[in-house]
Amino acid sequence: RRSEDFWYTDSGIILIAEGVACCVYQGLLSCHSTVFRELFIFPQPSYAETMDGCHMVYLSNSSRDLTDVLRALFGSDLYYSWPGEHPAFSVLAALVRLKHKYEMKALRDQALNDLKAIFTLQACPNTAPFEMTQQDAITVIALAHLTNTHSRLPMAFYVCCQLDLDCIVNGSEVDGCREHLSTDDMIKCLGAKLELAKD
Its domain of life (predicted)? Predict the structure, then answer.
């Protein structure tokens, strides 16, 4: 089905995630993403699927994450333009994941800087410019490993230690997506939780 937010009739490429089709500007994607730029270098085969004359590219991402990233790309400040002053933390997580995956370096670094500002030893989720919960620390740990930004880990692990055992072991669910700690991270978190309980 066509996206209600991203369907530009004069654009050149259709991105599809979870059955949601977004018709967007190929040139803008190429400008910001090394992965898409290299993809578009090669001519599409004659049998490639098209819709309204535009080639279709199927992505393995969630439609929610794709929409968040496109909103960042097509927003007036090229970062995000959500209503209100405090978008959900899941938006920032989506930006980090997809910008990392599709090598949108400038935008990825901007999102990582926001993540760093939240989860360092000098800051905590209570002061974040995003709507956050303690469970979001599980996502932060995964993002820190993904992007090799380990300075986020100490505070994120500390926040995880405040979670109940069920959440640490089984993860947390946000908008239908479940985030888990890896086995190693779960062991670290449980060990730290026991040590903190002794104090």
Answer: Eukaryota
